[in-house]
């Protein structure tokens, strides 16, 4: 049955009703009278939509060209004329004549009179801006999918849940040596027939909404070539979350597999070479002996590898004044050891080549040490001879305090032992010197920067091993700054200066840090001067603020916090405490900052008392410089009185270097603080000289194990032993132990098992604002009740 345009009689019979319905269905409805010309006159417009067409009541009865400008009128007249001439529906899209970018779709319906002429046109218009945006978004999404399929280096297959292939990309064609037409429409079983069972299992999993992750398959191409692919497959869902298809990505790993096979063959060859090598070779993993070649077994007086396997390497190798090997029968043999560190299955491994020391070897070893002037000359020669040259500047952390504590004679002995270890650590391409009092410099040529980083790590590990000075075990911290020749313009002095700048930044980041030079470091000293000038005004300008990091007491099922001062500079933004605290101590601003911190902590304590948090202890750091202030105790008393706070609510944390800088004054000050009711904790315990004498001599309540020990306790046996020993010793002396830097559940569990009472670190909470503290403490109190008590 044919569809004819309505007649004017039919239309006007129920005009009122019809317009009502059309007003509900469309945004705008026009009734246009067709006149000679043709011209089109507005007879009626939806009253509520006049503004959408930029019309007013006065425009009703006017023609199109009487209302709109020439361009718009011509466009509209063209569409209406087309509907008049064709006597059929005309649909077009156009931008609306309103503010903003909005679009509409109009349908023109011609109305015929009794003479079969168009006498009226009804125009029904609806806004389609949102629809067009969705169409554009859909088009963009399709383009992205097309781009993904076209340019990806992985092969893609889109298939239905029966395994019929819907679409593949060019990489898929290249991988299998087949054209798209040969694949699309076929099933996965047709293309990969040898893996029918895998395909069935995959389709079953995808039908259940489960992805398939990284399986490795061996396949044949069209030309019967063997390839290896890694496959991932995912289900595709429609808008109703119904699974409609599957998507698989195939990565060609043939080169990788072939390389692995070559590596296996190479490993067999290398093993044969190592077995037949004329020197003793030992491999250790995580400081335990895991392999020794026949010569090494002979040197160790071992019958088989099982006699020495998995035993601590320090049971055999000793690096005090002279490097020696102790055989199983107790014989001590002076040796020279070359160490090559390398990663092995995410563990730290080292290959050691060991040979007995001969007089000529001793002479060559001594030649690696040079006086400063010779060092500069040799460094210049290296710069002129090699493209890759680097300098490592090594600093002993807080050596002047260690020197004061041990005495100058023992301090010199420590430096000598450091020099001996440096001898052993560096290789034949390197030279070294003691550049000044407690700093050493190493220069070397290298092929890749990785060699430099590895040498820095070897040096750091070697120098951090425990020393025995005057029958007393001593541990030190170090910093290393690295600079490279390409930043120094072939100038030895510039290379050393750059290393010094890198060393400065390493010191700002903490202890045992290795830092390489970067160009922005040249501005470091200008920045330091600016900060020195701005810091005295920081308290006055209210630029300082406190953050609090919770400490969880597993034994008491309670929480306390440590107050941490922060500085937001108006120009530089947030300035690290590692940068501004040393400046504060150098310029004596530390006195004002210390008073501000205590006063602010007292006020914050009042806030905590009023919250659900209740009363808890706040730990505050006191620097070595503050202990030189004779008014320290009086100032603290004065602040407590003004702020109406009790000393028992606070713990003062001091570092080891604070104690050894002036032991007599420190012990007197600590005793006075203890009488007032303060608790005392030693912060960063074990990070510098690790003397245990003061633990019994000084009025200390708590020790905080430095984070550098906590970081490695899960995988490093030596760290486990050190931490366990510290906890045991502290408990024997009646001291509470806090571990800082706890970042993982494994670390927390180990410390709890070792009966460490308090834990602090990112695993529980980062430093947070006072306002965040009540909710955080409430959450931690719930957590602490789920933890196993250490007692």
Mean pLDDT: 82
Whole-number radius of gyration? 40 Å
Percentage of residues in helical conformation? 40-55%
Quaternary structure: single chain
Secondary structure: elements and pairs:
Blueprint: H1 8-13, H2 15-25, E1 28-35, E2 39-45, H3 64-67, H4 70-86, E3 90-95, E4 103-112, E5 118-127, H5 129-151, E6 155-159, E7 165-168, H6 170-176, H7 180-183, H8 188-191, H9 196-207, E8 212-220, E9 226-237, E10 243-252, H10 254-276, E11 280-285, E12 288-292, H11 294-299, E13 317-319, E14 323-326, E15 332-344, E16 347-356, H12 359-366, H13 372-385, E17 389-396, H14 399-406, H15 408-425, E18 430-436, E19 439-445, H16 449-464, E20 467-469, E21 472-474, E22 478-484, H17 492-509, E23 513-516, H18 524-534, E24 544-553, E25 558-569, E26 573-575, H19 577-587, H20 590-610, E27 618-621, H21 632-643, E28 650-655, H22 656-661, H23 663-676, E29 679-685, H24 693-697, E30 702-705, H25 707-710, H26 717-732, E31 736-740, H27 745-753, E32 758-760, H28 773-784
Parallel strand pairs: 22-23, 25-27, 27-28, 28-29, 29-30, 30-31, 31-32
Antiparallel strand pairs: 1-2, 1-5, 3-4, 4-5, 6-7, 6-10, 8-9, 9-10, 11-12, 11-16, 13-14, 14-15, 15-16, 17-19, 17-22, 18-19, 20-21, 24-25, 24-32, 25-26
